[in-house]
Amino acid sequence: MFVTWKWQRTKSGRRVGLARLTRRRRANTWKCERPGKTENTCRGSDKSRIVFNEAAASWILMHKHLFVAVSFCFWLLSAHAADTPVAGAPQSPRLSALLASLDDKDPTALAAFWEEVEKVHTPLVEEVPNQPHDALYTFLIRADPADDVLNVRLGADFPMRTEHHTDSFQRLGNSNVWYLSYVLPKSSRSFYRIRVPQGLHRSPASPARFTIDGVLYEHYLDPLNPKVFPEGKEHVDAPGSYFVGSEAPPNPYLAVHSDVSSGSLQKFEIDSHELGGKRIVTMYTPANYAIKGKPLPLILQFDGESYIIDAAAPTMLNNMIAQKAIPPVVVAFLHSQGTRNEDLQPNAKFEQFIGTELVPWIRERYRISKDPKVNAVAGASFGGLAAAYTAFVHPEIFGNVLSQSGSFWWSPTYLQDVSPSPNTGWMVKQFAESAPRPLRFYMSVGVWESAGMLSGNRILRSVLTGKGNEVTYSEVVSGHNFANFQQSFPDGLIALLGKMAH
Fold it and tell me: Pairing mode, if any, of strands 277-285 and 2-9?
């Protein structure tokens, strides 16, 4: 239970007294009690600014006059855009020039600045002296004088200044410009959102939520950046704002071309005795696929719905096959929603399902190869871990592993272990202590991911290389998200299957 206090106001804005707000965790509702008044239900906008435990709340009731005085002091320092500016000169030359113009009382400077931002969008990108492969990226908020912005934060996947990957915006002078600047590589790709304490944003639509120090923050897209990932109205994961540095390699397989024939997608529901329930698989077959003819490579792709919708994998497959970057393939996109943690963490039942139910079901209906050297299993995060484990258990089916940010920090007891866990790296240990398997790997991981994620992938690469396995390894300037996975997906398929196309 959380307890907080906040001024209650009339419709005209006059403060009429303090209210005691109590949050019931499970119901996610607030109880509003004003001293001497009847209890009533509070709206989301009555959410706490300052959080106390119940003992502190009892003390406040006994010393309410002192608390009113202290609260008034905090109120004077509160989060309105018309309040005291944050000291310090901005890193951004463009913002420094704007600040100088504002100090000179230029009446047109602010409007001209926002007009420029609407054309170039955010983040603003500026050169860094003597760092030709880096740039200064500046994120902005255009604040209304009545907006509560001091507690508004930026949540991003690149290294930030505070924990939880979230930094508070700073104000430029006395203006309505709030900003954050970071020096990042020009080869970077970043996924980010604006985080606002619940109830303080005008828009009711929040794609995601995140609790920081007991305060629930709602996530919003950057209104000054039109680039969103995933694109389109349909998505599996919550969308976020997105930017790509000028030196980031392009993905040449994402565009839909009228002269490229599309493959087919069919969704099926499979009853599994091993798993005691149903699983959904969407089967991709290439253009001009025929039941008779030479068997095609099989790709088993975990988190299938995310790869189909968010990562646009079918479009990339169409283009890669048309350009002969990979041979024609049959792809089993195995859906994971609702069963992801149950299926993708290494376990015998799921591997029995793959080996005795799923793959035989596919072979009965599709023309796929029985040669493990041409078949691949693929996934990201827990899916990358599952891909490695599936090939470890079934090298007679899959001879290729495509792992994107594989969770090789994992251990069967990670939820119970104190961090850092002495049991981390269970999958690494399996490969290290077992006889070499005839497997080829493509592994990618973002340099902005957690230390456990990055080190787990590096150690597994070393173990596999020492065992004699062929490993193509890539570290990209990005974080843990499907925008990253979309980029490395074709690289992995080409590394594993590209030679078969020629």
Answer: unpaired
